Amino acid sequence: MREFVFTVEYEKGVDEVMDLFIENPGLHSKTMAIHATSESMWRLDRLTGPTDVLESFDDIIESVTHCKGVKGMCGAPVVEWDFEVLSSTPDGRIVYSFREEGDGVHSIPHIAAKHIGDGLLMQAERRGSQYQWRLLIDEDDTVGEIYEEVHDALSDDLSLSVQRISEPECWLEDGFGSDGLPPEQQAALEAAVEYGYYETPRRNTVQEISNKLDVPNSTLQYRLTRAEAWLAQQFVSDALGTEVEDRIDPAELEVSA
Fold first, then answer.
1. Cα(217)–Cα(2) distance, rounded to whole angstroms?
2. pLDDT digits (tens), the chain, 257 positions
3. Would you say 148 and 162 are in contact if contact means Cβ atoms under 8 Å apart?
4. b/e map of 135-155 (b: 16 or more CB within 10 Å)?
5. I want to staple 98 with a disulfide (CB 3.0 to 4.6 A). Which of 72, 82, 241, 247 is the partner?
6. pTM, full prediction
7. SS3 sequence, the chain?
8. Could you give the CA distance from residue 35 to residue 27 in angstroms, rounded to a whole number?
9. For residue 22, how many C-alpha atoms fall within 13 Å in the half-sphere facing its CB?
């Protein structure tokens, strides 16, 4: 199997939901599960971000799903869209959605399902202006077919770029255990990497990153410290095969800061 990774980049003003990601760098969405046929799609997404931004997301998605004339990423009209928040915390959401599209070139999951068929596995991630997709494929010819159909269907306000076609490294990395972190700590780590906190020299301090995310400095520092401690425990236990006494339970690390 090979991994096909590509990104659709949005200009501001094209999509109301993506505008919220563009305006709020601390907002992040990643699929927990996504399934599609050539006609319909259903998925679970985990969102993390500041409380007020997530509340804005709730309002926008509630409005959009009830609007008539909504179109999918590649232009086909959305004929049915069901949306439900399954879990809600101040800093996170787990949301379920089901969507069907009408005549026209369908959105990426439908296009992938048409070319890959049964057994389709995919992931999706949204941050800033970028909507990144990962597909597991077993034929290189499929890559060209999917790319051409998506590229030809996107509007002028959206751009498509390919990151790699390689061994499925990201799927293996996901198995390392990052999903075991509380969403708030995972989001803190991702933001720290994105803003160069772990680079030498550092591009941003914790204080500067907390200002960008609109999160208190002490809260972000606490989440980073707890996430780093958990990752260190995971590394010693998983990578080196060493049993660690009193192993940290990630669910117990996040407390009200």
1. 41
2. 788 999 999 999 988 999 999 999 888 999 988 888 877 889 999 998 888 999 999 999 888 877 777 777 787 888 888 889 999 888 889 999 998 888 888 888 888 888 888 778 889 999 999 999 999 888 777 888 999 999 998 888 899 999 888 877 655 555 444 456 777 888 888 889 989 999 989 999 999 999 988 888 888 898 898 888 888 877 666 544 444 444 444 444 344 33
3. no
4. bbbeeeebbeebbebbeebbe
5. 82
6. 0.68
7. CEEEEEEEEECCCCCHHHHHHHHCCCCEEEEEEEEECCCEEEEEEEEECCHHHHHHHHHHHHHHHCCCCCECCCCCEEEEEEEEEEEEECCEEEEEEEEEECCCCCCHHHHHHHHHCCCCCEEEEEECCEEEEEEEECCHHHHHHHHHHHHHHCCCCEEEEEEEEECCHHHHHHCCCHHHCCHHHHHHHHHHHHCCCCCCCCCCCHHHHHHHHCCCHHHHHHHHHHHHHHHHHHHHHHHCCCCCCCCCCHHHCCCCC
8. 23
9. 14
